[in-house]
TrEMBL record:
Main location: membrane
Protein name (Swiss-Prot/TrEMBL): Tetraspanin
Gene (name only): Cd82_1
A Pfam match: Tetraspanin
Record's GO cellular component terms: plasma membrane
Membrane disposition: Multi-pass membrane protein
Protein family per UniProt: Belongs to the tetraspanin (TM4SF) family.
Cysteine disulfide links: C163-C185
Length: 258
């Protein structure tokens, strides 16, 4: 009776651990799908501000980030499937594979978190420099391929009622105007469909777009960081639960021979 009782206790532990493992594995999968969605958004939505600014010319930052997110999201989805199958069917080899993937992903996530922290300021400076560059190139007839970027900038200025990155005087650097008094039509409340307009200074949006642009950038970095940290916390629970489940399944399998 003692032997049977101890074996039942182990089975109870296995059932509880399988339940919690699948719950955390579901959370892990959901976070992985969020990364995958974030990567798909950057890769396919060419109208979002980050992709428009960083997917042209030599600067392929948006492409690199989207590929990295797509890769990690795909690995997480595959790993979750392995963990689910291993726990439900109690396959020890799949549980070991799952735990190995978790450790590898955990190290990768930590490296990405450090990279985001270290490179954030550098990317932010590139972000501001690229916006200044777009303002300087705006309306250049020989750079017609840049029109999607200019349209995005126009949409930001018109919708947020702002002008330039820090204020309207920044447009004095632009050399593509017919004369120095012109400014983008999106810097006024009424914006005809052309690049530059002749307007009196008192009808121009006085606020710069920098605050909005920085908030947009910071919010996206914050979301990505929050997902990464959440993944790390979930992975710690998953590695611990998988190890405990593996030991109990092993005990349960060898118990009749003792």
């Amino acid at each position: 009776f003692k032997t049977e009782n101890r074996r039942m206790k182990i089975r109870d532990k296995i059932l509880v651990q399988k339940y919690y493992l699948n719950v955390f594995n579901g959370i892990f999968l959901a976070l992985g799908l969020m990364l995958l969605t974030f990567g798909l958004w950057l890769f396919f939505d060419r109208d979002n501000l980050f992709s428009v600014l960083f997917s042209s010319g030599e600067n392929q930052l948006a492409t690199y980030i989207s590929c990295m997110l797509l890769g990690i999201g795909s690995v997480i989805t595959f790993t979750s499937a392995v963990g689910f199958l291993g726990s439900v069917k109690e396959f020890k080899c799949l549980l070991v594979t799952y735990m190995s993937f978790q450790i590898l992903l955990c190290v990768t996530q930590m490296a990405i978190s450090v990279l985001i922290f270290v490179k954030k300021e550098e990317v932010h400076n590139q972000w501001n420099n690229r916006i200044d560059e777009v303002i300087s190139e705006y309306g250049n007839e020989s750079l017609a391929e840049q029109e999607p970027v200019w349209n995005i900038l126009n949409a930001v200025q018109h919708n947020m009622e702002c002008c330039g990155r820090y204020n309207v005087t920044q447009w004095e650097r632009n050399k593509n105007k017919e004369n120095s008094t012109q400014i983008p039509c999106s810097c006024i409340k009424s914006s005809p469909k052309k690049w530059f307009c002749h307007v009196p200074r008192d009808s121009i949006y006085s606020m710069g777009c920098e605050e909005y642009l920085n908030t947009w950038f910071e919010n996206n970095v914050l979301i990505l960081t929050a997902i990464t940290v959440s993944l790390l916390i979930t992975q710690i629970f998953l590695i611990t639960l998988t190890g405990q489940l593996f030991r109990n399944i092993r005990k349960n399998n060898i118990w009749p021979n003792e």
